[in-house]
Every structure is written in C-alpha cells, then in structure tokens.
TrEMBL record:
Top-tier EC class: hydrolase
EC numbers, comma separated: 3.4.16.-
Gene Ontology annotations of biological process type: proteolysis
Region of interest: Disordered: 104-123
One family name in Pfam for this protein: Peptidase_S10
Keywords, sorted A to Z: Carboxypeptidase, Glycoprotein, Hydrolase, Protease
Designated name of the protein: Carboxypeptidase
Amino acid sequence: MFAIAIMLGNNYSFELEPYTAAPPRSRVKRFRRSSGPHSETGFVDYKYPNLRALLQGSRCSRTTMLFSAALAALAVLPAFVAGRQIPVVEGVLGGVATLPRKSGPQTLVADASDASSKPTPGKLRVTENSGVCETTPGVYQASGYGDLTSDESVWFWFFEARNNPDTAPLVTWFNGGPGSSSMIGLFQENGPCRINNDSSSVSLNPNSWNEFANVLYIDQPIGVGFSYGSTTTGTSEEAASDVWKFLQIWFQDSRFSKFQGRDFGIWTESYGGHYGPTFAAYFLQQNAAITKGSVTGIPINLKYLGVGDGLTDPLSQYPGYITYSQSNPYHPLVSSSVWSRANSSYYRSGGCESQIQACYNGGSNSVCSQAQNFCNNNILSPLAGNWDVYYVLAQNPDPYPPDLTNYLTSRAVTSKIGSQSTWQETNDDVYDNFADTGDWMRNSAPNLETVINSGVRTVVYDGDADFILNFNGVENMVNNLQTDFSSQFKQQQFANFTVNGQSAGVFKNAGTFSYVRFFGAGHEVPAYQWGTLSRGEAALQMFTQIMSNQSLTPT
Ligand SMILES: *[C@@H]1O[C@H](CO)[C@@H](O)[C@H](O)[C@H]1NC(C)=O
Ligand SMILES: *[C@@H]1O[C@H](CO)[C@@H](O)[C@H](O)[C@H]1NC(C)=O
Ligand SMILES: *[C@@H]1O[C@H](CO)[C@@H](O)[C@H](O)[C@H]1NC(C)=O
Ligand SMILES: *[C@@H]1O[C@H](CO)[C@@H](O)[C@H](O)[C@H]1NC(C)=O
C-alpha cells in the first residue's frame, strides 16, 4: 500500500462521508499537478474531484477510509486511465506524461501457432464473411491485416454497401485519440451494428453508413486497436504515410482491386481534425507525384472529406472551451471561480494562448508538447467540471455509448474475425509518442484549406452537447479558414437542417464546403438521436447528401 495522505480541497467539505462503500476503481484516477516548484502526485476520485489522496501529503481525515480501501486495490494503477477517445494522463484529459514511462515502445506479439498470424509484408491477411456485426443477407464483409512490414500490421474491417456496392463510393473511417481504435466508430457510431448496453451483444444499425457507401474501418497508427507491431508513429504526417501504404496494399489485393478509382472519401472524428486534413492533403500530393512519375502507386480518387467534432486549429479552438463552459445550450459546466482561473490561464502573458502561438510560430516539439500540457491542464480539464466531456447532458462518466472492451476481447468474436492481438480502446504508447512531438497543438487548417480549394467536397460537423471539441471552437476554426468559399460562407445565415420534417440542427453551405451543428448530439455524433428521429438518422442524412456530391439540404 502507498504512503498516502488524504486531503480535502480547501473550498470543499463533506457534511457526511461521501462514501458508504469504496468508490469504484474506474472512478479513481492518478494525477500530477505542478505549479512553480511545487508538485503533487496522487489519486483523485473524479466524482469528488477535491477529494484527493497524495502520494506524500499533508492533512489526513478519517472520513476517507473507504477511499483508501479503493486505493489499496489500485497498487499498480496505471498512469493512464481509459478516457474514451482521448486519454486521461495523470489526471489530465489530453495531458502529457511527466512520470517515466513504464516501458519503451511495445510490440504486441500475435499467437505464433496460427499460420494466419504470420505477417506477409506487402500483402493482406483476410477473413471473409465472418458473420459478425453485419447480418444483412448478401452484404459482403472482410476483416484482417495489411502488413506494411513484418513488424507493422494494420487492422481493417470492410463492409460493402447494402445498396449498389458496385457503384457506391468507398469511404475510410478513422477515430482519433491519438491512439484510439476505429472500432469505436464501427460499433458505437456509424457501423452496420451497434454495441448493446450489456457490452456483450450488438444490434443491427438501420442508419449505418454502409446503407449508402462501401466503408473501410482502419485501426491506425500501428499499435492501435487490433493493429500491432512497432509503435513508432508520433505525428499525423507519419500516420498519413502509413495509411497511404496500407491503402496501396488493399487496392492491389484481388478481392478489392475493383475499388481502384472509385470515388473515395475520408471520414473521421476528434483527433481526426488533424488526421483528416493531413491524410487528404498527403493523398493529393501522392496522386500528383504518381502523375509526374516520381512515385509509383495507385492514385486515390479523393472526392470527399468529413470531419466531425475535430481538433484542427488549436489557436482558433481553445477559446471555445472558455465560451462553451460558461454558456452553451444546456447549463454552465463550472463555477465562476473555476471559469475565471481558466480564462486567466488562457489570456495571461505566457499562458495557453501565447504558448500555442509559440508552437505555431515554428515551435519545437517540446514547445508544442508543453503547450499541450499547460493548456489541457489549465483549460481543457478543469472547464468540464463534473460533466461528461463527450456529452455534457450527463454526469461524468456517461455510461453511453457502452464500452466495447468486453465484446471485442471475447473469444466468440475474436475467433471469427481473424484478429491477432488483444483489443484496447486506446494505445498509450501511441498517445505518448504524439504527446512527445506536440502534434496536438500544431495547426492542420492549412492542409484543410488546400484540400477544400482543390475541389474535395468537405463537411465539418459538430454535436452541440460535446464539450471536448465543442461547436464554439469548431465554428471559430471554420470562420478563420481562408478558402475560395470563405467569404461566401461568412455571408450565409444558418438555416435549419431538417430531417424528415424535424429540425435536427443548423447548417451553412458555400461552394463545395458545408458545416452542420447537430442538436442534442455528443462527441460521437451518429450515436445520438434527436426528437422522434432514430439514432443516427440525422447523421446519415448528412453523410448521404455529401457522399452524393450534394450540398446539405433539409428534407
Ligand atoms: C478574461 O481574461 C482576460 C485577460 O486577463 C481579461 O481581459 C478578461 O476580462 C477576462 N474575461 C472575463 C469575462 O473575466
Ligand atoms: C442503455 O443505457 C442508456 C443509459 O446509458 C439508456 O438511456 C438507454 O435507455 C439504455 N437502452 C436500453 C435499450 O436499455
Ligand atoms: C430552427 O427551427 C427551430 C424550431 O425547430 C426554430 O426555433 C429556429 O428559429 C430555427 N432556426 C433557424 C435558423 O431557422
Ligand atoms: C461534385 O460537384 C462539383 C460542383 O457541384 C463538381 O465540380 C464536381 O465535379 C462533382 N464531383 C463529382 C465526383 O461528381
């Protein structure tokens, strides 16, 4: 057991013991905070954030025996606690690890007794029609690996369109993190099935995006989700290059070569605000190099980009936390004193704003990484209060969408789909690699502008109940874009995005660019419903319209 001391926050006191039983382990997280020369490391129960156990500390209280009991069971509590798509590091959402890493880059070793577990560089290993998830009769599916090298295997799961697969466009889906699995999107958001509340079964999703498109879910970078191998990727550019290599292998496989040249879309979310624009710009650059003859490969016929609740331009987006926390469609998230402290941390000299500026202004990895640490410690983390950062209508943690771990690690599933490594929602080594380079705080808006101006139809969307990539920040990012359509965009008024007669959000179109803010949706927009619409129905209307090369249109 630790040499711990329990401390009650100065501005917080319990009339009675907060616990009648030890708090669940999932609610207790590790933190490290420093200000000036002083630093603290310990544990906090995030339902009672001011009740902390310090690893070495000051005041003790006997009312906290049960908290101690919970900590006793946490003798090897990891520095990381699963925080859905974006990890909580040492108590800070999106934080940067300050404690030494437990291990170097980890390589997950697959079960060598199985022939299909042997990587074949430059080839796919495929399991067809596993019967898992997509149970619509006659709809083809395949899952497996594209092996970039003998030590770099990219997991994919492909579903043909339920309608007209031979002419329907091809879409790739990427979740964020960085380090989080695209199985989140597949099973919680827009895939052919959704995880049920029991976390062990699924139901067919009538609003799956493969109603309209062929959809390819990719776990990347290497090490994420079911992917495995050397976890060396630490920037969005490096990730783009690996995804391009994977797609070359995928298009060359005889099962999928018919999709070469098909209209192609990138759809992504969250950290995908970096991935989407960076991947898209890189694919266009590779296409140009193929045309010129300086690169050999299959061109990717990129026509569409969709970015949901994305982190693209931190300098434009971080003030959004301050706005949203105090004033959003639902309720203030924190007290005015917490809010004022964060406001000052953002604007004061040397604060978050000037640190992001320093990062943008040719900042080194460590400058950008420090900006991430400072801003997430002082702005992002505190401003959510006790609300779920992904859905502010629920207290933290919202049990919805249900966790996938039980389902995706069960033999019943893994024995059918050809997976070779133990699924985790987020790979901490990958996250750490990105945190080390400060990639989080770099600006992906220039890539987004390039992609929009090159004629790729683009939609940016956001759920109005999401704090972590809230619409205030995202709309500020969109308003600051400088594209061929920007002046037209700014002149537009928002109009209702009506879906089957119900207003499910507000939108603007300008040229081939669109933006939509969905009412009542959290971070994972297609996981939510509005009015009497079914879950994901409004998101599917957006997806179908954009992928039909149309502007957003009320129905
Ligand atoms: C936020 O901080 C800035 C800079 O310190 C200050 O000018 C501004 O008044 C603050 N906003 C509020 C509403 O307190
Ligand atoms: C699943 O759980 C959520 C709360 O997390 C609840 O709102 C919803 O009604 C539940 N669904 C079913 C089918 O029980
Ligand atoms: C959208 O519809 C709602 C009613 O559902 C209405 O109150 C609102 O004014 C409309 N907004 C716009 C921009 O038309
Ligand atoms: C999509 O529409 C735009 C403008 O409306 C047009 O320029 C472009 O060629 C179309 N793309 C496809 C793939 O049809």
